[in-house]
Amino acid sequence: MSGWSVSLVKRNPRLRSIPNIATVHEIGETDGVNFITMEFIDGVTLREQIHRERTELRKLLRYLQHVAEGLAKAHAAGIVHRDLKPDNIMVTRDGPSPSRR
């Protein structure tokens, strides 16, 4: 699996409730194929936001602040994302949660 180590996620349910990281609902294997069932994020990837939306730098930096905060929480829980890139970062259509604005 790209990104999160399946064994780490299975051993660490705290990954399922880290702010600014999609909730992982289930990790499993069917017929020899690993899968992760995750929360649906209604939005676009950071790559799309950068290239199609022409978002201002200040707003992009705010998104990256949220990414860094989520990763810091994951790292504190002993989890490292191995495939961090703009295609794997989602920006919600409704923006940050009210407590984060």
Q: Could you tell me the mean pLDDT?
A: 78
The helix-and-strand class reads alpha+beta
Indicate the radius of gyration in whole angstroms: 14 Å
Distance between the termini: 33 Å
**Biggest sheet: strand arrangement:** 1-2
Name the poorly predicted regions. Answer: 97-101
Q: Which H/E pattern describes the elements?
A: HEEEHHE
Give the count of helical stretches: 3
Biggest sheet overview: 2 strands, antiparallel
Helical content (DSSP H or I, runs of 4+): 25-40%
Principal-axes shape call: globular
- What is the strand content? 15-25%
The count of β-strands is 4
Explain this structure.
The protein contains three helices and four strands. The longest helix has 20 residues, at 57-76. Mean pLDDT is 78; it is low at 97-101. The radius of gyration is 14 Å and the shape is globular. The chain is an alpha+beta fold and 101 residues long. It has helices at 6-11, 46-51, 57-76, and strands at residues 24-30, 33-38, 43-45, 90-92. The strands form two sheets. Strands 1-2 form a two-stranded antiparallel ribbon. It has a two-stranded antiparallel sheet with strand order 3-4.
Give me the secondary-structure topology:
Blueprint: H1 6-11, E1 24-30, E2 33-38, E3 43-45, H2 46-51, H3 57-76, E4 90-92
Antiparallel strand pairs: 1-2, 3-4
